[in-house]
Amino acid sequence: MTEGEFLIVGLAPNGELMSDSPRYSPLNALHEELGASFTDFAGWQMPVRYDSDLAEHHAVRASAGIFDISHMAEIAVHGPEAGAFLDYALAGKLSSINLGQAKYSLLLNEDGGIIDDLVVYRLGETRFLVVANAGNRFAAVDALMARVAGGGRSEGAFDVTVIDESDATSLIAVQGPASLEILLHTVGLSLAEEARSRPEPTLETLKYYFSLPALFLGHPVLIGRTGYTGEDGFELYIDQTEAAALWIALSEAGEGRGLVPTGLACRDTLRLEAGMPLYGHELGLDTAPVQAGLGRVVALGKPGDFVGRAATERGVSPDAPVLVGLVGEGKRAARADYEVFGRDASSETPVGTITSGALSPTLGYPVAMAYVHPSVSALGTVVDVDIRGTRLPYTVTQLPFYRREKN
Amino acid sequence: MANPQELKYTEEHEWLKLDGDSAVVGITAYAAEKLGDVVFVELPKIGAAVVAGTVVGEIESTKSVGELFAPATGTVLEVNDAVVSSPELVNDDPFGAGWLIKISITDLPALLSADEYTALTGE
Fold first, then answer.
1. Nearest CA of chain A to the CA of B23: how many Å?
2. Other Cβ atoms closer than 10 A to A345
3. Peptide bond before A400: cis, by omega within 30 degrees of 0?
4. In the CATH hierarchy, which fold is given to the domain comprising A1-314?
5. φ and ψ of A67, to 5 deg
6. A290 with A316: CB under 8 angstroms?
7. Structure confidence by residue, pLDDT tens digits, A101-151
8. Chain A window 361-400: which residues touch B at a Cβ cutoff of 8 Å?
9. pTM of the predicted model, to two decimals?
10. Can you name the CATH fold of A317-407?
């Protein structure tokens, strides 16, 4: 990468990443060798599929897939008040998570809207890693940096440093039931000395949403038992200069274990089946967490103020749309932005809008998520979705659509 | 996948295999690749009158929806039931077993040669 490549990036008025030339992953050459098709994602050229997105989807459910998600944003938060700062800046109570633990959280604005959804890892007593969506990188960094000032609290600014490490950091996810075996057989990958003092000091015993420090050929790697597919799996954070070597080592360990390279197309159908929200679809500045079923992510019980508390405590209108899961019959998928209607055929006023939808590769029938009026949000309610001029029935269903069998 | 020389093409990424007053129609390998894995195909009924340039069917992948345009004006003579029950044929063999419909032709717009179509897709 050339030095100038990062200088021409700016923010468009709508908040989307805007740049004169696409960004490329440090793994781009490997993806090209593997025959990937690419798509633009938040200004990045990322693999959408390597061969068959359906085969990639099934591989993650049955064995394993390896994803390059280096476009994700990594923001380090260091300092004596790092925990207290995150309690103020984010919706959750991050100060109370344990060493190595990860927690899903939200970055709210003063109106209680969602600037981004995040995963926060505790790397030390005073060190946290905040992982944000690529498209929200600058919004998240800007908000976090602005909140260091403390919003007028009596103690003044937080004693904390916020560092955007996104450019230096790559992220590789290995997801699927064979993931553990693959990591255990990856040549050059070993846990760091520090991992020995953890309550679960091995990958085998590492719990979901916990992490361990590791080394790959002497370079630090953070291994989280986290992911966005609904399967067991790991996410590996590493300096971008070492990412290609790690990808190759993981791929070699995956030979004979059913590992295939997997692109963003199957990542989306996997997360949809698992009922996981995608920012820009299920989450946005005009959605309150409670509407998205994420009320529990906002820790109203934590002491002290936090950004978004007052708005969240005020609540939303009883008519505010709520996120539901929908399942259909046949093969025709309701897709994002399609309108949802009541069953009365003469009904001209939509009662909701689809946010994500696909013919579920695992289940074989169409699944979707939608924001609908509370009057049609009860489980079992049947609604109509206008699929390019044809109204087809969908039934409100519990999320997630797919849940893996746990050992 | 190379575009077969014996076929004609449209800017909507469809191919025609002309045989007198009729043609077999499908989508190109380029289109199938861009769509991704096809999971649902809706085709017109046999006997339906179709007008060149109008939408007569749908080809859905997990991630997107492609429209099937009638490449010529005429009548639907046959539809490929195999592709309706096994949509993956569109990806596996777009110029062969993944054909979609056969139509009789009363009016045929200008079509592209294989070389012209290849130039259009830049591949």
1. 28
2. 8
3. yes
4. Gyrase A; domain 2 (3.30.1360)
5. -110, 140
6. yes
7. 999 999 999 999 999 999 999 999 999 999 999 999 999 999 999 999 998
8. 361, 388
9. 0.91
10. Elongation Factor Tu (Ef-tu); domain 3 (2.40.30)
